[in-house]
Amino acid sequence: MKRLGVAVFLFLMLVSPVSAQTVDEIINKANLAAYYAGQSGQSDVVMTITDAQGRQRTREFRILRLNVKEGAEQKFYVYFKRPTDVERMVYMVWKNIGKDDDRWLYLPALDLVKRIAASDKRSSFAGSHFVYEDVSGRGVTADTHELLGEEGNLYKIKNMPKDTKGVDFAYYLVWIDKNNFLPMKAEYYNTGGKLVRTVEALEIKDIQGYPTAIKSKAVDLERKGETVIDFTNVVYDAGLEDSIFTERYLRQPPTQWIK
Amino acid sequence: MLKKLITFSLHRPRAIMWVTLVCVGLALMQYPKMKVDTDPENMLPENAPVRVFHRDIKKEFSVYDMVVVGIVNHKNAEGVFNVKTLTKIYNITEEIKGIKGVIAGEIYSLSTKDNVQQGGVGEVRFNWLMPSPPQTQQEALEIRDQAQNNPMFYGTVVSEDGKALCLYIPVERKNLSYGVVQAIKKIVAKYPGEEEFHFTGLPVANDQFGVEMFKQMAISAPLAGLVIFLLLWFFFKSVILIVAPMLIAMATVIITMGLLIGFGFPVHIMSSMIPIFLMPIAVLDSVHVLSDFFEKYPLYNDRRKTISAVMEELFFSMLYTSLTTFAGFFSLSFTPIPPVQVFGIAVAIGVAIAWVLTMTFIPAYIMLMNSKIFANFHSSADQEKSPYLDKVLGFIRRVVSRHFRLVLIVTVFFVGAAFYGISRIQVNDNPVRWFEAKHPIRVADRILNKHFAGTYESYLVFEAKDQQREIFIEPQMLRYVEGLQKAMLTTGLVGKTTSLADVVKKIYYELLGGDKVNNVVPPTKQAVAQCLISFENSHKPDDLWHMTTPDYSKINIWVQLRSGDNKNMQKVAQHVAQYIKSNPPPMDVTFNWAGLTYINVIWQNNMVGGMLNNFLGSFMIVLFMMLFLFRSPIKALISMIPLTVTILFIYSLLGFFGKDYDMPVAVLSALTLGLSVDFAIHYIQRVNDVNAQKNDWRTSTEEMFEGPGRAIIRNALVVAIGFLPLLFAPLVPYKTVGFFMFTIMAFSSVATLFILPAIVYWKPQWVFEQQGKGVTCRCSSCLLVAFFVACAVAYVLLGYTPLGWKLTTWLSIFVIVLSAGLCHLASKRRICLNQGGQK
């Protein structure tokens, strides 16, 4: 037994610093933990946007998510409740792998369904300091990953985008919880090496066995201002159907799921 | 007191020298603390309402002072829209983001802003306008078409002809602009090619001005010193004699500037002119003293006695000329414009310093001179004669003595014409025009304003009354704003306006499939809100908050003017006020302007009103001084005539030649009073002195065209020519000051020599009043004084109390009537009757 122990120890010595394979594993696990919990998920969301002058606005919406394939395709349905002027507005996304996502917008005041095309995923999510990618997840193959080390209970990983086109940062650091693989913090740096933006998980709660970030914050250090997202009524695997995520339900929201 | 001071100077010349030297030394020690302020905003006090509002707006809507970089390509058929140029612009923009002081996240350029446009069928596309440099000419042209179809870019970032592009670089503070421009120029230099680069914007102009101001001070002030030196040498042909005045001038300038800097006042465009103003003024008195000294020396053959005699003789006229000059400048402290106040007070103090130095330094200087030198000056009196001056004076004498009526008629005619000219004066200023026409900033200004909708920004802000929320996403309110924007364009002065209405319209139009009929404000508030939230899904959602507040209780209309002329901004503001009056907004709102272009209008208005007020004030002060000096209201009034005619005439030239009444011109009006009255003081004082000896006004008047006339003309020439070096300054306001001071000094000395003798010929009794009879004994004089007092009372009441014109007029009339009664009684007093009887 002693020998085996020494052998394991030596093996670990050889393996660490952790190989590239392990970094990718961490990243993959983090991706799953953060964006793919359960087969489907739903939540009420309150988004509080605070600008550089301290002025606050809130957005309230319900978000429904369905995994089409674990770690790959997903569908999102975002139903706006507040402010009242945008009530019943719907934003739907089919997250694709290997091609641009499909996005739709339904504007009730114009009774208009419109497909939205975007060249990148770094645009604002509903005027907040979160970008589209923060909400839907950044493709794990979009960056090269490098494990810089461990800080307490966290892995510290540096991520360099493979294609700088359409990306508003030079690289970002992410800290991932060793136990539940949730990304706890991300720091985005510009080409000058200056920290310009942070995204942070403020509160984690175990819901149906899935560790879930129920409060997150994004801070824009350049223009100043921050957005806090609160998730409530989080439920996983409640039986969302694929048919909900279709154009038909944009005009006629699935009442039972959006209450 | 004065005697003591002079005696002290005579006995302890070394002590005086040391004290002066120490003062100069102390003053020089302050210089490293010098701060420069070229911000026209500071023409208004920090807490002026328009500045407070401007600051609030800047903060509330996150608008910044911007450096405008224009890129023009005339060589390529497609202008700047070719692969090479766009790649360059892309790379340059990226590099600019790294410059210190630049707010990188707010740069307004092709590659930093989002566009919304039609995608495939039923699709709308939100993306960066130029996420990366185009690869083909086709892509470059697509970028152009997209930009030109977006109201946020057209006429602002892209020119109408596609030949030019603009980058708007926000800076953290205005006074970083010059450094930022220099840094951008360095970056640009790395990308040579067929493109021209231009830099403009008010912050750049202001900061550049500060840099050039130092050059101006370094060139013009020493040049003025040299010119004055040469001029004095030409008059007196003795270096020893003119070194002392030059030293006084330098000491005065150094001490005054030292005081200014030491007390923490920044050097503003006005105060940078202090040396130029002080130098000629400072030498005047000492030149008088010295030339008199050398004339009298042979009589006494003793320095001490000679200097005492000279000082006694010249004391009063020197005191009064200095006092009037002091008053003229000091009166500037009553203007509502802080830099002008500082300038006025500083020069006034400088005048006082020069006077004290003349009283102490000159006697000390003479005591320390080598006694051998005096031997050479016995003939100095002969050298005083000058064939040129005498010819001129002789000509004036012949004209005046033969045609004095004609001279007076011509004078009256001049005044009449002047009033017509003044009525045509156009008040206007433009900080960019403070540079010469050839200056790169002016060139950039011309070119960019030809290609684009205007590089001069102002902001029209509407605010809901009672903090009512969300009224600016009401379609009727947006339509109102849209109409107002259209109305602004009809002035022809506004190149473009941008507001929330434009954004909403663009989004709505694109969402509905790009049909032109849908380029309108959406029909409901919900529709507007939903268009806006769609916009917020872009890369720069915060761009919305440049145009409205998150609670939609305010709206900010960005107005681009093609020229920075204050008169244009003023016309636009008036037009808007008129429009709002005749088309009341559908909801309860207030409106107000902000932006540097608008602030300029406010201080300009302050300046015009303030300066007129100030001119009247210094006129009063000088008039009362003359009253005290001559102890005769009629003489006091006469002494004011030549300079009044001069000032009216000179200012009418502005009207006739269409030159704008701008800041330097406004400031000059008041202070020239104090300077040009000196000629009249000398003239009236001397003609009375001479008459006291000769007791024949004809001979006395003729004699005035000899020595005193020469003195007046010399005096005028020193001051006038002393200002000429300003014409070589690279900045226009300095040129204006130089030209005006020269003209005013030259014209007023000549006017004095024509008008005053003509009045003497016409009504000798006015100038040669019998002495001994008090003012109070003659009813007419008494009434005149009463009238002066009434005017002064009215001026003070109007200027410093809230009383209106009507009440003031009645009060003044009451004062006059009351004094008339008192005058009548006073003239019937026994003393007066007795005196009359003796006569």
Keywords:
heterodimer, A: 259 residues, 13-stranded antiparallel sheet, 5 helices, 13 strands, 45% strand, B: 839 residues, four-stranded antiparallel sheet, three-stranded antiparallel sheet, 64% helix, elongated, disordered C terminus
Strand runs of chain A, count? 13
How far from one another are the termini of chain A? 59 Å
Instruction: Decide which structural class fits the backbone of chain B.
Output: alpha+beta
Quaternary state reads heterodimer
Percentage of β-strand residues of chain B: 5-15%
Measured on Cα atoms, how large is the radius of gyration of chain B?
Answer: 33 Å
CATH architecture of chain A: Clam
* CATH level-four homologous superfamily name of chain A: Lipoprotein localisation LolA/LolB/LppX
Shape of chain B: elongated
Strand content of chain A: over 45%
Q: Mean pLDDT of chain B, as a whole number? A: 83
Proportion of residues in helical segments of chain A: 10-25%
Between the first and last Cα atoms of chain B, what is the distance in angstroms? 38 Å
Number of helices of chain B: 30
State the major sheet of chain B. Answer: 4 strands, antiparallel
Rg from Cα of chain A: 20 Å
Mean pLDDT of chain A: 85
Write up what this structure looks like.
The complex is a heterodimer of chains A (259) and B (839). With 259 residues, chain A is α+β, with helices and mostly antiparallel strands. Chain A has a single domain, classed as Clam (outer membrane lipoprotein receptor (LolB), chain A). Chain A is 17% helix and 45% strand. Chain A contains five helices and 13 strands. Chain A has helices at 2-15, 20-35, 132-136, 248-251, 255-258, and strands spanning 40-50, 56-67, 74-82, 90-95, 102-107, 112-118, 143-151, 154-161, 171-177, 183-189, 195-207, 210-220, 226-236. Chain A has a 13-stranded antiparallel β-sheet with strand order 6-5-4-3-2-1-13-12-11-10-9-8-7, covered by helices on one side. In chain A, a hairpin with a 6-residue loop joins strand 2 (56-67) and strand 3 (74-82). The model of chain A is unreliable at 12-20 (pLDDT under 50). Chain B has 30 helices and eleven strands. Chain B is 64% helix and 8% strand. Chain B is elongated and about 110 Å long. In chain B, helix 2 runs antiparallel to helix 11, helix 21 (596-630) packs antiparallel against helix 22 and helix 22 runs antiparallel to helix 23. The two termini of chain B are 38 Å apart. In chain B, a hairpin with a 4-residue loop joins strand 3 (114-118) and strand 4 (123-128). Chain B is α+β, with helices and mostly antiparallel strands and 839 residues long. Strand 6 (112-118) of chain A pairs parallel with strand 4 of chain B.
